[in-house]
Automatic annotation (TrEMBL):
Gene that encodes it: LOC18592554
Identification of the protein by name: Glycolipid transfer protein 3
Gene3D superfamilies according to UniProt: Glycolipid transfer protein
UniProt cross-references to InterPro entries, sorted A to Z: GLTP_sf, Glycolipid_transfer_prot_dom
Organism from which the protein derives: Theobroma cacao (Cacao)
Sorted UniProt keywords: Lipid transport, Transport
SUPFAM superfamilies associated with the record: Glycolipid transfer protein, GLTP (SSF110004)
Highest taxon, organism lineage: Eukaryota
Length: 220
């Protein structure tokens, strides 16, 4: 309960920053046997990013559903044997050796799509930090086109295009991200900190996914 109350006092961005410090990082090219990504902090960050996407509104409904389902899939696996799956890399190795990693319902795919969803969120935050006055609809569309659209089928892309009209304006979205005691400068600093922490982790995860030939997979 204490942890929950503390989380309520902080913004999603600040909570995500705290969680990222718990995710061990391995530089690309290092021995994969030494790679370690703890599932709990990773999935918690995904959940916090989900809460940020909620503030964009119905536009993110399809993406939100995918993220939620992928979080649940990994949570169920990790909770089934916490010791065995204390490292998400072990899950990748296991599914790869069994020939299941590329299947539509695999946990490896769930891991891949959660990583791509965070790519989208990071790209969007970068745009808002660089140009706070940028049209929100344009920022969301450009971030989607770069990070998710190349991997989505035409149905998902078409649904996203229609829902773009429901994106809130920039000022509304920024105000939703801020806590009561926060200024815009504080929020901008949080966004910059989150980006600086998350980008290298995502780059490392993508490098690992490529080793297992998952990086180019498209939606089924």
């Amino acid at each position: 309960m204490k942890r929950k109350r503390e989380m309520e006092k902080r913004s999603e961005l600040r909570s995500a920053i705290d969680e990222l410090s718990m995710i061990a990082k391995v530089q690309p090219g290092d021995d994969l046997d030494a790679a370690h990504i703890a599932p709990k902090p990773f999935l918690h960050v995904c959940t916090l990013i989900l809460q940020v996407l909620d503030k964009i509104g119905p536009t993110m409904a399809v993406l939100r559903q995918d993220i939620h389902q992928n979080i649940q899939r990994l949570e169920i696996l990790c909770e089934s044997d916490p010791t065995r799956y204390s490292n998400l890399i072990e899950m990748l190795k296991e599914e790869d050796s069994e020939g299941n990693a590329r299947k539509g319902t695999s946990c490896s795919r769930a891991f891949l799509w959660l990583t791509r969803s965070m790519d989208f969120m990071v790209d969007l935050l970068k745009r808002l930090v660089k140009n706070p006055g940028q049209n929100m609809e344009q920022a969301v569309e450009e971030s989607y086109n770069i990070t998710l659209k190349p991997w989505h089928g035409w149905i998902s892309s078409a649904a996203f295009k229609v829902a773009l009209k429901l994106v809130p304006d920039n000022e509304t979205f920024i105000s939703l991200l801020m806590t009561k005691d926060q200024t815009y400068d504080n929020l901008r600093e949080d966004m910059q900190t989150l980006i600086s922490l998350l980008v290298p982790i995502l780059e490392e995860i993508h490098s690992i996914l490529n080793v297992y030939r998952l990086g180019r997979l498209k939606s089924t």
